[in-house]
Amino acid sequence: MSVEARERRQPWILLSPALTAITLLLFIPLLFIVVYSFWLRTAVGGVEVTFSTQNWQQALTDPFYRYILFATLRIAFVTTIFCAVLGYPAAYFIARARGNRTILLLLLMLPFWISYIIRTMSWINILGVSGALNTVMLSLGIVDEPVQMLYNEATVILGLVHFLLPFMVLNVYVSVEGIDRSLEDAACSLGATRFQAFREVTLPLSLPGLAAGGLLCFVLAAGTYITPLILGGPRDAMFANLVFEAIITQLNWPMGSALSLLLLLVLGAVVAVYNHFMGMSQLSRGLA
Amino acid sequence: MRHFLPSGWSLIRAYAILVYVFMFLPVVVVVLLSFNASQFGSFPMTGLSLRWFEALWQNEAVLRAFRTSFLLGTLTAIISTTLGVLASLAMVRYQVPGRNLIAVVLIAPILIPEVVLAVALLLFLQVLGIPKSFFLLLMGHVIFTLPFVILVVQARLVGIRREYEEAALSLGASPRQTFFAVTLPLLAPAIFAGMLFAFTISFDDITGTLFWKPGGVETVPTQIFAMLRHSISPEINALGTVMIVLTVGVPLLGAAIARRMAMKRGG
Q: Looking at the 3D structure of chain A, how many domains does it have?
C-alpha cells in the first residue's frame, strides 16, 4: 500500500470506533423509534406492528399534552431569561475583573461539578417547612408558623436556574473575554460614557455568547424531568415527565416514542432557528 | 482599569457577589446540615455530630450504589476515552473529507435531549432482546459521555505539536516506537482529562440512568432519588456531602496531577 493511501485511510480507521458507536447506539435507535411511534400497543400490553397515526394524533391534539408542552416551553423560557439576567453581569464582572480571573471563573464553575441531584434537592433544605428560610422567618417573628414555599412552578424554575446558570456564565464569559478592551476605550475617548460604550460596543459583540448560553439553558431546561419530580408539585409535570410516565410506568412504548420524538422536533426547531441566525460554531466554542 | 464610573463597577461587583452566594448557599447548607446532631436533619441545628456519616457507612444499599457507580464510571471512562481519543486524533491530525459533518455527528449525542436518547436506546436494545441491564447502562453512559470527551481531548490535542513525532521518525524510530515513546506520553494529559470528565459525568448522571437501570440496581444519584421519595432524612445530606467532596475533589485532584504531569514534561 502506498504511503498516501495509508495516510488517507488512517483517519477513518481512527474514527470508525466512535462513528460506529454513535451509529449503532444513537442514529439507528432514533430511526427505530420513528418506526415504533407508528405501531400500537395492544390491550394485553404487547405491541402491534402496523401503520397507525393514532399516537401522533393523540400527541398533537390531546389538550393535556398540549398544556404540558406549553408549560414546558414557558418554564424553559423563564429559566433562560433568569439565567441571562443573573449570568450576564456575573460573567462580565469575571471577564473584566482585575483580580485572578481564572480563580473567579473556577469558583463559579465549582457548583457545576457538584451532583445535579444534590444541588436540586438542596433547595428543600432552604425552602422547606423546616428549612433555613422558615427558621429565620420564625425566629424574627415575620411569620407565626412555617410556610410551605416548595412544590410549585416557581421552585421548579429556581432549581433549573441554579442548575443551568454555569452554562450561561461560561458562554458569556468566553465571548466578553474575546472582545478587545480598547474598543470600549476608543468609544469613551470619542465621548461615550462608560455605560454607552458598554451598550453600543460590548453588549452587541457579546450577543453570540449570550445566544449560545441561552440556547443551552433553554434546551436543557425543556428536556428535564428530574427537577419537577423533586421540586415541583403533582401538577408541575414537564414534557419529559410524560415521556417517562409512558415508557417506564405505563409501558406504552409506541406512545412514549411519539412523545419523545415530538419533544425532539420542538427542540430541534429551536436549535434550527438558532443555527439560522448564529451558526453552530459559537456553541462548540462554549462547550469546550 | 475602570470600565464604569466607580459606583457602576461596584454595583456590578455587588451583583456578582450575590450570584456567587446564590450558587453556593444551598451547597453550604447541605454540608452544614450533614453534621447536624438533631434527629430530623433540619434547622435549628442542635449540635455537631458525625452520626449521619456513620449511619451512611452502615447503609448497605448506599454502599452498593457507590460500588455500582464506581464500576460504571470507571468502565465508561475507559471505553469512552478510548473511542474519543482515537476520533480526536483523526480530527486534529488529518485532513478528513466532510469534517464539518463528522464534527456534528461526533457531538450529536449532546445535541439530542438526553430523554430522547434514553428512550431510543432503551427501546432499540429491548427489541434486539437485550433487556435492561448493566450492559445497557454502560452503553448509554458511553454514548452520552463521548462528545464531552471528544471536545475536551480535541482542545488539548491542538496544543501538541507534530514536530516531535516527525523528529523521532526522521531519527529512525519506527512508527510504533514513535507512538509509544513520543505520542502517547504527550497525549497522557489529554487522555487523563477525558477519563476524568467521562467518569464525573457518568457518576452524576440520573436522567438516562433512570430509564436504563434494571430493577434493584441503583447508582448513587438514583439511590438519592429513591431516598428523597420517602422523606428528606439527614442521611441524604451526609450522602450529599460525600458526593460534593468526591465530585469536586476528584477533578481538582485530577487538575493538580495533570499540571504536575505537564510540568514534568516541560522540565
A: 1
Evaluate whether residue A20 is within a structural domain.
no
Does pLDDT of B257 surpass 90? no
Which CATH number does the domain housing residue A223 bear? Answer: 1.10.3720.10
Flag whether A186 is in a domain: yes
- Domain assignment present for residue A181? The answer is yes
Judge: A126–B26 Cβ closer than 8 Å, yes or no.
yes
Q: Is residue A281 one of the residues assigned to a domain?
A: yes
Q: Do B94 and A27 touch (CB under 8 A)?
A: no
pLDDT at B78 over 90: yes
ipTM comes to 0.89
> From the CA of A25, how many Å to the nearest CA of chain B?
6
What pLDDT does B2 receive? 46
Domains of chain B plus CATH, in order, are: 59-266 (1.10.3720.10)
Query: Which chain B residue is nearest to residue A22, measuring alpha carbons?
Result: B143
Average pLDDT per run of 10 along chain A, which is 288 residues long? 75 93 96 93 78 91 95 97 97 88 84 86 89 88 88 96 94 90 86 85 90 94 95 93 94 94 95 84 59
* Partner A, chain B 124-183, Cβ-Cβ below 8 Å: 124-125, 127, 139-140, 142-143, 146, 148, 150-152, 154-155
Average pLDDT over residues B169-176: 88
Confidence band for B5, pLDDT divided at 50, 70 and 90: low
**Is B19 at the interface with chain A, CB within 8 A?**
yes
Q: Cis omega (within 30 of 0) on the bond before B44?
A: yes
